Amino acid sequence: MTTQTSSTKNVKIGVCKVYFDGSDLGYTKGGVEVAVKTITHKTEVDQFGKTTIKETILGRDVTAKVPMAETTIDNMVAIMPGAVMTAVGGTVATGSITIATQPTTGQTILVNGATVTFKTAAANEDEVTIGGSVNATAANLAAALSASQTPSIAQATYSVAGAIVTVTYGTNLVYGSSGNPTAVGNSFTLVTGTAGAAVTMSGATLSGGVEPTSKRVDVTHGVGTDLLAIAKPLRFHPISKADTDHSEDFVIPLAATSGALKFNYKLEDERIYDVEFVGYPDSATGKLFYVGAD
User: Fold this and answer.
1) How is 177-239 classified by DSSP, letter by letter?
2) How many whole angstroms separate alpha carbon 71 and alpha carbon 26?
3) Burial letters for 97-130: b for 16+ Cβ neighbours within 10 Å, e otherwise?
């Protein structure tokens, strides 16, 4: 039997950052609430009157209420099913990572400040299996970066052609056919780290990002939208922890919202996106949520 030593260090308070599909939803106002509800059936028999003789779990639900204080167009697209943004003008920020020669196990690169490690056989998040060729290693790198839940990495999208991984800054939102034009991506960093000459970067940062001249969000009625089909990871990260420390994160792997909003156009009230997320279980594993490192 494992025992745990009590410690006042285990008593924690504080707010969290909220990431939906890897995108930081920004400031909140009023506190984030996560609720887990377990539905049970209580068995009673005549001989014991109204005394419960056993109890069986019938199901479990997880919901999260997030009062988003940053009522931006970008955030509206993030939480409103069926919302499509049209951006006029602007260009996306891009860059590339090239596998010049095969890295060795344990060598690292830094993608937007987060360490990515090459391994003979990747076993953890942000680890990349060294393939049988530079092309195979590049393909593995693009796949690992695309699957990463590390917020700084997930801000971009990744594609591969040969030994070159193209990095495009984006927040995984829908911006018509123009991607996500923004100058913010120009600060997304690429560093060779200990991999040295084995990996070359297009530059210290992505480049070419230009803000659009105007943006608009179009929202339809959404009738018939399958929320499970568009469900994405929802992560709550305590601000007391480093962005790369997921030891206390609360994660709903499949979460979606119907997109309810509340605006207060009042002198002393902020406009708030009061958003309620609902979690769905993974059909293969049954996992509904988890707490701690990936």
Assistant:
1) TS----SGGGG-BEE-GGGGGGEEES-SB-B--B--SEEEEE----TT--TTTT-EEEEEEET
2) 9
3) bebeeebeeebbbbbbebebbbbeebeeebbbbb
Strand partners, 33: 65
Identify whether residues 204 and 94 lie together within a single domain. yes
Greatest Cα-to-Cα distance within the chain, rounded to the nearest angstrom: 79
State how many domains the chain has: 2
Note whether 113 and 174 are same-domain residues. Answer: yes
- Residue 203 belongs to a domain: yes
Residue 19: what residue type? Y
Q: How big is the CA angle at 110 (ends 106 and 113), to the nearest 5 degrees?
A: 135
pLDDT for the residue numbered 1: 56
Task: Give dist(CA 129, CA 118) in Å, integer.
Answer: 6
pLDDT for the residue numbered 266: 78
Class of residue 4 by CB neighbours under 10 A (exposed 0-12, middle 13-18, buried 19+): exposed
The answer as to whether 58 is a domain residue is no
Q: Domain of 122? A: 85-216
Residues of the chain whose pLDDT is less than 70? 1-4, 8-11, 13, 170-180, 262
Tokens linked to 9: 């260090």
Q: Is 182 found in the same domain as 230?
A: no
Whether the Cβ atoms of residue 44 and residue 54 lie closer than 8 Å to each other: no
Amino acid 70: pLDDT: 86
Look up the pTM and report it.
Answer: 0.70
Indicate whether 173 and 275 sit together in one domain: no
Whether 63 maps to a domain, the answer reads no
In a domain, residue 108? The reply is yes
